[in-house]
Structure formats: C-alpha cells, structure tokens
Amino acid sequence: MRTVLSGTQHALRAGDYEAVIASVGASLRSLTFAGRDLVVPFDADEVRPSYRGATLAPWPNRIVDGLYAFGGTERQVALTEPARHHALHGLAAWLDYEAVDKGPSHVTLEAAVEPQTGYPWRVVIRTTFSLDAEGLTQTVTATNESPDAAPWGTGPHPYLVAGAGHVDDWTLELPADEVLAVTPDRLSPIGLRPVDADDPERFDFRAARAIRAVEIDHAYTALQRDEAGLARVRVTGAAGSGVEMTWDAACPWVQIHTSDKGVGKPGHRTGLAVEPMTCAPDAFNADRYDYDAGLIVLEPEASASASWRISAV
Fold first, then answer.
1. Rounded to an integer, what distance in angstroms lies between the CA atom of residue 312 and that of residue 162?
2. Nearest one of 60, 62, 55, 61 to 24, comparing CA atoms
3. What is the C-alpha to C-alpha distance for residues 86 and 80, in angstroms, rounded to an integer?
C-alpha cells in the first residue's frame, strides 16, 4: 500500500477532541474540538504546506545567512529560505518520524538529526502528542548522542483558528512586554523593544483586542505567566469561542505571524501562527546580541525538554 505524502497518520481521540499527527516532520495535521477546527489543517495526501504544524528542530526560526560559530568553529548550513538568504526552521521538518509508543489518545514519535555539513552532531528527537480533556499537549525531548556539545532549540508551528472568518475578524490576547525588532526586508533581528514603544497599535496585545489588518511576523518575550509558570496566548472569534495555547518556562519566546501570504494566495490570513520557542531568532549567533537569546547547549548524553498545549475556548 502506498504511503500518503505526509507520511504515516496517527489519529488520536479524547472526549470532544480529535487530532491527526503526520509522521513527516512530526506534524500536527489537524486538531478539532466538537468538530470545530482549532488549527489550519492540511490533507493527508499532500506535501505539507510550508511548515504548517511541523515540529521545528534543532533550531526554530532563522539563522541569519545560515552562518554561525560554535565551539570556536564557523559553520554554514543550507539556506532553506533563499528569498531572505536564511536557514529557516532547522533540519527536522522533513524527517519521517517512527512511532515508538501509541495508544488511543497519544503517540510518541522519534527521529534523529544525523551529523551533517553545518551541524555535525547526532541529536535524537522524541516527541509525544497527548490528548485529554484539557486539549492537545506536545512534549519534545532532545538527547545529544555526540561526543561534543551541540547547540539546540525547538518549537512548534501551528496556525491557530479562532472560528469563522480570517485573522482580521479575530481578537488576540498576547501578554508579552517586549517584541524583537527586525529588518523589514529579511526579518533579521535588530534588538528588543517594549511593545508599546514604537508601534503599539501593531505590537501591543497585552489587553485583548481585534487584530484587524495588523501584520505581524515577530518574536515576543518578557512573557507574563500565571502562578503555574505558564504563558498563554488566546485567539477568539466574534461569538467568544476560540483557541488558546499555553507553554512552560522552557519557552521564553513566542513567534507570532498573521500568515500574510499575499491576497489571493492559499493560506493568506487563514490562521494565526503561534510558535513558542526555546530560543530567539538567530539564537545560534547569540553572541551578536545584547539580550539573552536562550540558546541551549546540549552536553554529550544530556537531554532537554519543552512542552506546549492547544485548547478550545
């Protein structure tokens, strides 16, 4: 039997929640609550559109020019965002993950980033997707199986759906005090700014308000957290229902993207990308910046984990 283009399909169910995880990229292909989409889905037998729902590793976001230095050695990785001349979203988005544990409401997938030009470390990635009454939780754990320390970062890439309509019709609550300013052409990091400093109408969503025509493709930090240490982003529609995403302290950053593909192009403003990240954009070049980019250094045989949850509102 032919394998569909997005790989092996893992259907999960718990209560009113249903999810399908595709093995290629350990991708969240669909997530519904009582039949309502919580993320922008894609078909099983299609090449996943861009990074929709993918697990990003060993770095999320961009390495500027694909160049970085680590352990005293300069390295060059492939430019996977050629229009901006960057290396985008790591090396694992097109790996075919193997299921190592599975039940009706959970699946654990595993793959390895093998040593290669630009990233000469073997890092094993194990990720579990689990449904319960609170929603879908994903946990990613990386283990360095190399003899030397390795740079590491991870995050997910779902496009949240609040309900009927498009991004313009929804309300966003994003309790973050700082946003990373970037160059307008290449989105290369410049520096941190208070969200109410330069363009609050574009960047300050600490109090819930309508997104309207605002265009965002920026990383936020200085996240406000609850008593359990969780950060939270909520997107709601006109009826008040919607979707929220929460994540733990392992992710001090979140990328927000209003999915501006161009009017008339597929996926244009059909979902809001909310991407908790263990590190900032271009974190492999952390020494360039005067803020904490959050780069994780995995020592040999060491592991690091991060988790996040998507829930219906």
1. 9
2. 55
3. 6
Return the biggest CA–CA distance within the chain.
57
Encode pLDDT of 167-226 as tens digits. Answer: 999 999 999 999 999 999 999 999 999 999 989 999 999 999 999 999 999 999 999 999
In sequence order, the 6+-apart residues with CB closer than 8 A to the CB of 110 are: 97, 98, 100, 124, 125, 126, 127
Give the torsion through C-alpha atoms of 77, 260, 213, 36, to 10 deg: -110
- Residue 200 has φ and ψ, to the nearest 5°, of -60, -30
Query: What CA–CA distance (Å, rounded) separates 32 from 163?
Result: 11
- 259 close to 266: Cβ distance less than 8 angstroms: no
| Cα–Cα distance for residue pair 49/53, rounded to 1 Å | 9
Residue-wise pLDDT for 59-118, tens only, equals: 999 999 999 999 999 999 999 999 999 999 999 999 999 999 999 999 999 999 999 999
Q: Can you tell me the distance from the alpha carbon of 211 to that of 271, in angstroms, rounded to the nearest whole number? A: 12
Q: Residue 34 is inside which H or E element, if any?
A: none
Contact 118, 75 (CB under 8 A): yes
Tokens 């319960």 belong to 132
